[in-house]
Amino acid sequence: MKIKKIEFKLYEYLIMTILIMATDSIVFRTVFHPYNYYFLTVVGAICAMLVLGNLHIFSQKNKFPLALFFAFSIIVTSLIYLDTDFFVVYKILVIALGLYLFVKWDISKLANIYVSVIVFIALFSIIGTLANRLIISNPIFPTLNDGEYGTKTAFFYNIRLGWTQLVYYRNQGPFWEPGAFQAYLNLAVFFKLFLVKRNLKNLEFLILITAVFSTLSTTGIIVLCLLILARGINNDKSDWKFKTINVVTIVTILGISLFNSNINEQLFSKFNNSSSSVISSETRKESIITNMKIISQNPFTGFGITNGSGLYNKISSLNKDIDQNVNTSTLLYSWSIFGIVYALLSLYAYMKLSTAFVKGILPKIIVLIAILIITNTEDWTYSVWFNVLLIYGIMMPSVKRINSNEVIPITKIS
Q1: Pairing with 157, which of 49, 65, 200, 301 sits 20 to 30 Å away (CA)?
Q2: Residue 338 CB burial class (10 angstroms; 0-12, 13-18, ≥19)
Q3: Does 5 fall in a domain?
Q4: Is residue 293 part of a domain?
Q5: pLDDT band of 1, cuts 50, 70, 90
Q6: The domain containing residue 38 runs over which residues?
């Protein structure tokens, strides 16, 4: 079947680039901080007014009350603890932003634009990785002070200065570390495998998996293999050629990972207790344990942003063997500060996003595991993109399968 060419306007790609970069890229987190959050808050306020002015449209959406509960859970906790943190307002208004986007772009359009932008960033970053030394030595590319080492940036590609020779060549794209980049890349792989259907399928897929591999992220490789595995055992018998490509891809990735000593060391050193890379895995494990300790004290309403963050920093500081104050378990962290309603709706959103596009019980389970890994191995609590995704997950209607030929009908605000 011939796939229809889908065209989008330039400003739509720009909006998606802002959603991806505004809170998570190093350039925006350093040069434009905190004005990036102020800008998004203003945009969210405008979207909130548009939502309020078009409540008759939103009232027709069956899942709109869930989005309201999502916002109210933040408001209730903040009122209980008199929490005046700026990010309380930010989180609520980003929900309004997500709601407005939902009625302007259906999930298929969102996914198509996202994949296009991420493929461009991935290709740019691959070229940047190959031209690593040229970027480091060229004064055209500025060095940003992002805390620990400093970062040489080409906007869509960053090099973390002060790392060892091998880590120099780990592709982190425009983000603060390779682990963050792999999350964005693998989310694009997910959309590509299960939702986005258009020409240049294999070329875009090749660019994405090359970029994932170039991050040398253990988590990234695991998630990539899970997604490819899920597609490979999907119940669709018509795409056996693509399944063959997937199997060859997994075997190639695992072969290179296992038999190249330098890459093997980088990918699997965190499982070796004598390696400094163990700090990464220990920090993630400690994040789960610390958040569970906080949740056990007040599982219903959480402690609010100010108190919850303070408790986390206090408890995590007792462990000197981890990267303190780094909270990578987004779902549990959100539970600890906003309560059980917020956490359950977040989990519901992840489940909807993971399973709506996938056939078969086992593939659904595998994809859900992959999405939970993507969303809970870095701190995405205040990421505008990942918050928008939560709203899409909450608001999406229940369907057996959605793809670009079966677009969800959306009433659009004129």
Answers
A1: 200
A2: buried
A3: no
A4: no
A5: very low
A6: 10-271+340-395
Determine, yes or no, domain membership for 314: no
Per the structure, the count of domains in the chain is: 1
Query: For residue 200, which phi and psi values (nearest 5 degrees)?
Result: 65, 25
Residues 6+ positions from 194 with CB-CB distance below 8 Å: 231, 357, 358, 367, 403
Residue range 187-199, pLDDT digits in tens = 999 999 998 866 5
Cβ proximity of 174 and 21 under 8 Å: yes
Lowest mean pLDDT among 71-85, 86-100, 359-373, 397-411: 397-411
Q: Around Cβ 70, how many Cβ atoms within 10 Å?
A: 26
The answer to the question of residue 326 being in a domain is: no
Task: Find the helix packing angle between 218-232 and 178-194, rounded to 10°.
Answer: 10
Please name every residue paired with 152 in a beta bridge, in sequence order, or none if there are none. Answer: 143, 159
Half-sphere exposure of 367 (CA within 13 A, CB side): 29
Give the tokens for residue 159.
Answer: 């090099």
Cite the DSSP H helix spans in 215-359. 218-232, 240-259, 261-268, 278-297, 304-316, 330-338, 340-355
Please give the model's pTM, rounded to 2 decimal places.
0.90
Give 283's Cβ-side CA count (13 Å radius).
18
Nearest to 311 by CA among 319, 320, 303: 303
Report pLDDT for 169.
Answer: 73
Distance from C-alpha of 22 to C-alpha of 383, rounded to nearest angstrom: 8
